[in-house]
Design goal:
The chain is of the alpha+beta class and 435 residues long. Helix content is 51%, strand content 11%. It is globular and about 65 Å long.
Length: 435
C-alpha cells in the first residue's frame, strides 16, 4: 500500500480511503435528513445547527470534491434549515488550513525558487482555504497580488473520489434513463481541468476580454510570470464578502447587483457559449466604490452550438408561454429518453416555475420561490426516472440554481426578463474552447 492509500491524513486533508468513505456516508445521511426538514419547512432547532457544524467539519477535512459539495449546500438557502446554512458558510472560504510548510514547498517546486526570492513579501496565513487550494496575499513588483496554491495530492484525491462516485452512480441510476457514469465522467473532467491553474489563467484572460464592455464587472488579471500548473497568481482585488455586502448594502444596491449577476451568467452562456460553473457567494467581492469582482474561474464549461441552440429554443418557448411548441422543443434537447409515458404537462409546470423570474416584467427572488422549485424536483416528480439528462446540462442547472439561490439571499428584485432576453437575442460570439 503506497503513501496516502491507507487511512492516514495528509497534513489536515483526510485522504485515506477508509476515512473518506466513512465521512462520505455520514455526510450523505445528514444532508438527506436536513434537506427533508428544509423542504417540509420544519421549525429551526439546535439539532440543525449541530448537524450543520458536523457536516462542515467533515467536508472541510476532506477538501476536494467533498468540500465543493459542501459549498454548494451552503448557499442553497431555503432548501436546508437556516442554522445549517450558517454552519456551512465557512466552507466558502475554508476553515481548516493546511500548514504553510507544505504549501510553500508546492510554490517552490512549481516556480523553481524559494518563496522569498519569488515575491517581495508573502503573508503565510491564507486569506481563503478553498476546495482544491489556499489563497495567500503577497507583493510583487510593488503591487499586491493573490497567490492560489494547490493542495498536494488533491488531483489524485479528486480522481479517487470520482472513481468511487462512478461506481455508486451505476447503482443510483438503475431503472432510470440517466447514464450515471457519464455524468460522473463529466464532473471528473471539469474537476481535472480545475486542477490545472495555467488553464484557469487562460479562462481569466478570456472572461476579462469578454466582459471588458461591462464596467460594473471586474475579472482579476493573471500574472503569467508567477503562474504554473499548481500556482496561480493574479492581481489583488479588495472588497467586502457576499455576506458582509448582504448585511450592509441598501436594497436598491442589492437589486442592481442581482441584475448584474444574472447578466454575467446569461451573457456568458448564450453569447459566449461558456459558463463559470462555480457561482457560490465566496466567489464575489464587493468594493466600497468600484465594480463587483468575479473570482475563481477554475471550473469553466464550454458548450457546442447545437446544444445551446436547443436550450435557447426551449427557454424561449417557456418564457413566451408557448406550450404548443413545448413538446418538440423539449425533445430536441435530448432530455426525454422515451416520449411514451413522459408527463409533458408536469415538466412544463416545472420549467414555468424555474423560469418564472424571466416571464414577468419584474420579479423578486425569495426563499419560498426556491423551496417551490425543490419540491417540484423531488420524489413526487412523475418524470424523475424518465429524464435522460445530457452531461452538459448539469452545468446549466448548477449555474441557474446557484444564481437563483444567491439572488434569493439578496432578495433581489428587477426586470430579470429583460436581462435574459438580451442575452438570448445577442449575436453569438463564443469563447474558444481548449483543445
Amino acid at each position: 500500500m503506497g503513501k496516502n492509500d491507507g487511512d492516514d491524513d495528509l497534513d489536515g486533508i483526510r485522504s485515506g480511503w477508509g476515512k473518506r468513505l466513512w465521512s462520505t456516508s455520514k455526510v450523505a445521511g445528514n444532508a438527506l435528513r436536513l434537506a427533508a426538514r428544509g423542504v417540509r419547512g420544519a421549525k429551526p432547532s439546535e439539532t440543525d445547527n449541530a448537524i450543520g457544524e458536523s457536516l462542515a467539519r467533515e467536508l472541510d477535512s476532506m477538501k476536494g470534491l467533498a468540500m465543493k459539495v459542501g459549498q454548494i449546500l451552503s448557499y442553497f438557502d431555503g432548501v436546508l434549515p437556516e442554522g445549517t446554512h450558517a454552519a456551512l458558510r465557512p466552507l466558502q472560504q475554508g476553515a481548516r488550513a493546511v500548514a504553510f510548510d507544505t504549501m510553500g514547498a508546492v510554490v517552490e517546486a512549481e516556480l523553481g525558487a524559494p518563496v522569498g526570492e519569488l515575491f517581495e513579501a508573502f503573508d503565510t496565513t491564507p486569506v481563503a482555504s478553498a476546495s482544491i487550494g489556499q489563497v495567500y496575499r503577497a507583493k510583487l513588483d510593488g503591487a499586491d497580488v493573490a497567490v492560489k496554491v494547490q493542495y498536494p495530492e488533491v488531483a489524485r484525491t479528486l480522481a479517487a473520489d470520482a472513481k468511487r462516485l462512478r461506481g455508486l452512480s451505476r447503482l443510483a441510476s438503475v431503472a432510470t434513463a440517466v447514464d450515471g457514469p457519464a455524468l460522473v465522467d463529466e464532473l471528473a473532467a471539469r474537476l481535472g481541468e480545475e486542477c490545472d491553474y495555467e488553464r484557469e489563467a487562460e479562462h481569466l484572460r478570456r472572461f476579462r476580454a469578454a466582459f471588458a464592455h461591462v464596467p460594473e464587472a471586474h475579472v482579476p488579471a493573471p500574472v503569467a510570470a508567477r503562474t504554473s500548473a499548481r500556482v496561480l497568481t493574479t492581481e489583488w482585488c479588495p472588497g467586502a464578502s457576499f455576506y458582509e455586502f448582504e448585511a450592509a448594502a441598501p436594497q436598491a444596491r442589492k437589486d442592481e447587483v442581482g441584475l448584474l449577476l444574472a447578466r454575467f451568467a446569461y451573457e456568458s452562456l448564450y453569447r459566449r457559449a461558456a459558463l463559470n460553473a462555480d457561482p457560490h457567494p465566496g466567489n464575489y467581492l464587493f468594493p466600497d466604490d468600484g465594480p463587483v469582482v468575479f473570482l475563481d474561474f477554475g471550473c469553466v464549461r464550454y458548450f457546442e452550438a447545437d446544444f445551446l441552440a436547443a436550450e435557447r429554443a426551449l427557454t424561449r418557448c417557456v418564457i413566451d408561454d408557448r406550450k404548443d411548441r413545448f413538446r418538440d422543443a423539449l425533445l430536441a434537447t435530448g432530455m426525454v429518453a422515451k416520449p411514451k409515458g413522459f408527463d409533458f404537462d408536469s415538466h412544463w409546470a416545472l420549467l414555468r416555475h424555474q423560469l418564472a423570474p424571466y416571464s414577468a416584467p419584474r420579479f423578486r427572488f425569495d426563499f419560498e420561490y426556491i423551496r417551490g422549485g425543490v419540491g417540484m424536483t423531488g420524489p413526487s416528480n412523475p418524470n424523475l426516472r424518465k429524464l435522460a439528462i445530457p452531461p452538459a446540462w448539469i452545468w446549466l442547472q448548477r449555474q441557474q440554481w446557484g444564481l437563483h439561490a444567491v439572488l434569493a439571499r439578496l432578495g433581489a428584485e428587477g426586470p430579470f426578463a429583460d436581462v435574459l432576453r438580451a442575452a438570448l437575442d445577442a449575436p453569438p460570439e463564443p469563447l474558444v474552447a481548449f483543445g
